Every structure is written in C-alpha cells, then in structure tokens.
C-alpha cells in the first residue's frame, strides 16, 4: 500500500496546501487526483514520489518510509519529458542509468531501436515520454505517479501510452496515481477518482 498519512505541507512562505491529508493507494488501483489549477496536485505527486518531504505526517510504502537514498519505490513520470532527461546524453545511456531494460518493454512501448542513438532534442515529445516511462519501469517500482504525462501529446499517442500503462501496471501489480485535466481520460483510466476540492472529499480536513 502507498500511503500519505496525515500530511501537512506548505511551500516556503505560503499557506499549507494540505493539513492532515491522507490517501491510500493499493497496488491494484489506478487513482486519479482531480482538482482545479493550483490546488496542489503536482505538489502531492512530488510528495508521494519523495521529491518533497512533508512538514508533518509521512509517506509510506508497505508501512516503511520512502528511502532517503537509492531507488525510490515510487517513480514519477513528468509532464515535460524534455526536462526529465539529460540533454547531453544519448537515449541508450539515459536508459542504461536505470539498469537493464527488457526488450519486451521497449517493444510494448513502441520504442524503435534507431531512437536509442539519438539525443533528446532529436525525438518528439511522445517518443521521449515513452523513454521516460521505460526508465521509470526499469527500476521495478511498486508505484507510478503520472503527472499530466500526456497533455501535450496527440490523441493517438495518448491512447497508446495509456493503453500500455494500464496493461503494464496490471501485469506487474504496480499501483498508479495519475493527474489529468481531462475528466474523460481520468474516467477511462482510473479505478477511483479523488477530488481535492470536493466538500465531501475523501480527506475533508485536507484543505487549508
Ligand atoms: N516551489 C514552489 N514554491 C512556492 N510555491 C509553489 C511551488 N510550487 C508550487 N507552488 C504553488 O503551490 C500551489 C500548488 O501548485 P501545484 O503545481 O501543486 O498545483 P496543481 O494543482 O498541480 O496546479 P496545475 O493544475 O495548474 O498544474 C500553487 O499555488 C503554486 O503556485
């Protein structure tokens, strides 16, 4: 289980985005986080994946805090893949940093082998995002956090990527947290939607 337990978090000098916020995600769930712009969806993703630490409360995976170093069991996929890779590294080397990437994964993601020798700026956004997903999966995470990962992609690429992610997370028993501004996408992909702004929210004490 991935758990945010009684989290309070405020950006420096700002009011808390959440107070005593809790959320549990099971490995067989795909949970969509929904809220208007600025409510703290991306911040929540960063907390769940260990990029930020809450001022109060904790994030646990199977009852254990996220590790301070080493590979995090919660891997994040970012909205802008070009900011998530080293522009000076060829894609083969970027992938190699994550360890062994099975050929099957590359095939299922539609990654052509000719792309491996390219630099990030020589790939489209959709092609690059496929590499970022492969890299996140290569470290064998327990959970994936996908923050607006397909917003800038065309409809066909979007559908391919989500079809892959649903199948792969089911196959590997990886829990998924996703943020999308598209209610239609969230409804199609998610097994559960959590609204940060609803009065009868799952965590009514979460709003500051
Ligand atoms: N590093 C930061 N320092 C200070 N404030 C920040 C920082 N990052 C985000 N914020 C603020 O925290 C609030 C929540 O931001 P966040 O990006 O988490 O919201 P969001 O719900 O993902 O928004 P959007 O839907 O527009 O992407 C916003 O008011 C934002 O301006």
From TrEMBL:
Domain of life: Bacteria
Gene Ontology MF terms: ATP binding; ATP hydrolysis activity
Family: Belongs to the ABC transporter superfamily.
Listed InterPro entries: AAA+_ATPase (IPR003593), ABC_transp_ATP-bind (IPR050319), ABC_transporter-like_ATP-bd (IPR003439), ABC_transporter-like_CS (IPR017871), P-loop_NTPase (IPR027417)
UniProt keyword annotations, A-Z: ATP-binding, Nucleotide-binding, Transport
Name of the molecule in the record: ATP-binding cassette domain-containing protein
PANTHER family assigned to the protein according to its UniProt record, in alphabetical order: D,D-DIPEPTIDE TRANSPORT ATP-BINDING PROTEIN DDPF-RELATED (PTHR43776:SF7), TRANSPORT ATP-BINDING PROTEIN (PTHR43776)
Xref: PROSITE patterns: ABC_TRANSPORTER_1, ABC_TRANSPORTER_2
Gene3D superfamilies to which the protein is assigned, alphabetical: P-loop containing nucleotide triphosphate hydrolases
Species assigned in the record: Gordonibacter massiliensis (ex Traore et al. 2017)
GO BP annotations, alphabetical order: transmembrane transport
Residue ranges of every copy of the ABC transporter domain listed in the record: 2-208
């Amino acid at each position: 289980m991935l758990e945010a337990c009684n989290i309070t978090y405020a950006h420096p000098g700002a009011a808390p985005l959440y107070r005593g916020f809790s959320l549990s995600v099971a490995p067989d769930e795909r949970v969509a986080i929904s809220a208007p712009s600025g409510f703290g969806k991306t911040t929540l993703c960063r907390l769940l994946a260990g990029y930020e630490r809450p001022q109060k409360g904790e994030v646990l995976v199977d009852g254990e805090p996220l590790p301070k170093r080493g590979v995090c069991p919660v891997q994040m996929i970012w909205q802008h893949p070009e900011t998530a890779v080293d522009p000076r590294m060829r894609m083969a080397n970027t992938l190699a940093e994550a360890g062994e990437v099975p050929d099957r994964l590359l095939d299922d993601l539609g990654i052509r082998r000719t792309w491996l020798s390219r630099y990030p700026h020589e790939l489209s956004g959709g092609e690059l995002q496929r590499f970022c997903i492969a890299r996140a999966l290569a470290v064998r995470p327990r959970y994936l956090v996908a923050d607006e990962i397909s917003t800038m992609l065309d409809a066909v690429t979007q559908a391919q990527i989500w079809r892959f992610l649903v199948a792969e997370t089911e196959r590997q028993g990886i829990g998924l947290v996703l943020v999308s501004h598209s209610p239609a996408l969230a409804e199609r992909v998610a097994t559960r939607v959590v609204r940060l702004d609803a009065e009868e929210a799952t965590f009514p004490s979460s709003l500051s």
